[in-house]
Design goal:
Elements lengths: L10 E7 L4 H11 L6 E7 L4 H8 L6 E5 L5 H10 L5 E4 L5 E2 L1 H14 L5 E12 L2 E5 L9 H10 L10 E3 H12 L8 H12 L1 E13 L6 H14 L10 H15 L8 H20 L11 H14 L3 E2 H13 L3 H14 L9 E2 L2 E2 L5
Parallel strand pairs: 1-2, 1-4, 2-3, 6-9, 10-12
Antiparallel strand pairs: 4-8, 5-9, 6-7, 6-8, 11-12
Helix pairs in contact: 5-7, 5-10, 6-7, 7-9, 9-10, 9-12, 11-12, 12-13
């Protein structure tokens, strides 16, 4: 295995950072304390704050790399930080989140042990969630299964933050997933969910057997704060705010398409791909149905509402190719170039038509589901 040749670092802790608060600096310094022969810490700061840079430079060392970057969007900062990793596994850590010292040490221990087994693509554990009205411990079931349908089912069954994103991921798997999503012409706020789906399609997760992460949900505690965060990303992508009405429908479309047609899914039998795509789509449809009734101040609200109602009335029967046509048509009303690139990207993901036409639990596609 090429990755093992000359490999010294078992785990890369990756911290793309923009916040300039004392809390953010403190969390970065805590992460730097984990650096050792087995663990490297990579911080890429795009805040532009000279005061913060001075603090970070004081922590620099052989296994603590500090990269000062020009201001950029969050997606770019994550992508560029990922490229800097040298460890066998990578673990993203936000500058508003914390990890537990012993949890990180345990992940590094497991990473070193399972590096020779490419079927192990991730290391997860228990997560302490800091919620608006209390705290709770969360984790996933079945993500360690040999069966990809069970892994995807275990992921979508958990109704909470995307914690797989904050698991340690085998670096070459993370590199492939990030490269795939970076090629998408539109960078959308739910794409962390698609990264997690790709990880689950790629192999099994091991459980560290202890608390590993403290996750701050303040940016997503309420529907209003969550929508506000999403709208900023849609605006950065040059999209009309009415697209936020289609948020979970888009996530359902893109995830189901990935599970059916992407290179990450093609090693599996058609029946398995259909089952994974159906479970994904059904969960996102439930989220979509529960997230209606907001206009977001757009003149395109009536058309977005009409599209929402059409697909909700279709339940439980869906045609992914027709849905892609409808979404692309909606995007074309205000951004025809973006609509065409969006359609072209997702149709390029699907292999040439090969007669795989079927139906799985009510979800269908002319391209194979």
């Amino acid at each position: 295995m090429g990755l093992l040749k000359g490999l010294v670092v078992k785990l890369s802790i990756l911290m793309p950072s923009n916040r300039t608060t004392p809390g953010a600096c403190g969390r970065i310094l805590q992460a730097c304390s984990w650096a050792c022969d087995d663990i490297e810490v990579v911080v890429r700061d795009n805040s532009g704050s000279l005061d913060k840079q001075r603090i970070l430079r004081s922590a620099e060392g052989p296994s603590r790399r500090i990269v000062i970057a020009d201001p950029c969007e969050a997606h770019e900062n994550f992508v560029e930080t990922q490229k800097l990793a040298r460890g066998g596994f990578v673990l993203f850590l936000g500058d508003d989140d914390c990890a537990f010292d012993r949890g990180v040490a345990r992940i590094a221990e497991i990473a070193g042990r399972c590096l020779p087994d490419p079927g192990i693509v991730g290391i997860t554990g228990s997560y302490l969630l800091e919620l608006a009205h209390g705290s709770q411990v969360a984790g996933y079931r079945d993500v360690g299964s040999e069966n990809p349908v069970a892994r995807v089912g275990g992921y979508v069954a958990y109704q909470g933050p995307n914690l797989i994103f904050y698991s340690a991921i085998r670096r070459e798997v993370a590199d492939a997933a990030w490269a795939f999503m970076d090629a998408a012409p539109l960078k959308l706020p739910f794409h962390d969910q698609l990264l997690s789906l790709i990880y689950l399609l790629s192999g099994r997760f091991l459980d560290a057997g202890r608390l590993i992460f403290l996750y701050n949900t303040s940016n997503w505690d309420t529907a209003a704060t969550s929508a506000a965060s999403d709208l900023k990303i849609y605006a950065t992508a040059g999209l009309d705010p009415a697209v936020r009405q289609l948020h979970w429908l888009l996530c359902g479309l893109e995830g189901a398409w990935l599970a059916m047609f992407s290179p990450f899914a093609m090693p599996y039998a058609l029946e398995q791909r259909q089952a994974m795509a159906s479970r994904w789509f059904e969960l996102m449809l439930r989220r979509f149905a529960g997230d209606r009734g907001h206009s977001y101040g757009s003149v395109l609200t009536p058309r977005a509402t009409q599209l929402c109602e059409k697909w909700l009335q279709r339940a439980p029967h869906f045609d992914l190719a027709e849905l892609l046509d409808d979404v692309s048509g909606f995007l074309a009303t205000f951004a025809p170039d973006k609509a065409e690139s969006y359609r072209a990207f997702w149709t390029s993901v699907a292999p040439p038509s090969n007669g795989e036409v079927g139906r799985s639990r009510g979800t269908s596609s002319r391209r194979g589901l």
